[in-house]
Amino acid sequence: MPELKKELKPFSEWVRFEFEDNKLLDPPEIKLKMSPIYAFDTLDYIFSEGRANITNSILECIQEWNLEKGGKKIPLDKETKQRHLRPLLSAKLKGEATMLGWKVYLYAINLDNFVKN
């Protein structure tokens, strides 16, 4: 009988992303906690409405952030993700030839990032 050897955590540790040059954030960085994106689940997006919508899976996987405005933490909900996080998904990361959205996706689909010790 198969034995479950490892379990997954529901959220990652804090992951810091630094932007090349971003006028939306000061300093130009963000910390995120993410939930896993299961590769098979992305098929739901591909076959729903006949097109892939990876952006929604990326936005949904973000569970916590460190964004503030005027010294107060910005609550993380669907509206604030659309308003504040979505524009950052296209932002170039410092020292890398990629954008935040793609880096988040690659992190979240790698289940090794969520294995309990």
Précis, in short:
The chain has 117 residues and is an alpha+beta fold. It has four helices and five strands. It has one domain (15-114).
Task: Describe how the helices and strands are arranged.
Layout: E1 15-18, E2 29-34, H1 42-47, H2 54-61, E3 62-65, E4 68-69, E5 72-73, H3 78-85, H4 100-109
Helix pairs in contact: 2-4
Key phrases:
single chain; 117 residues; 3-stranded antiparallel beta sheet; 5 strands
Please, could you describe this protein's structure?
This protein is an alpha+beta fold and 117 residues long. It has one domain. It is 27% helix and 15% strand. It is built from four helices and five strands, in the order ββααβββαα. The strands form two sheets. The chain has a three-stranded antiparallel β-sheet with strand order 1-2-3. Strands 4-5 form a two-stranded antiparallel sheet. α2 (54-61) crosses α4. The chain starts with 14 loop residues before the first strand and ends in an 8-residue tail after the last helix. The model has no long low-confidence stretch (mean pLDDT 89).
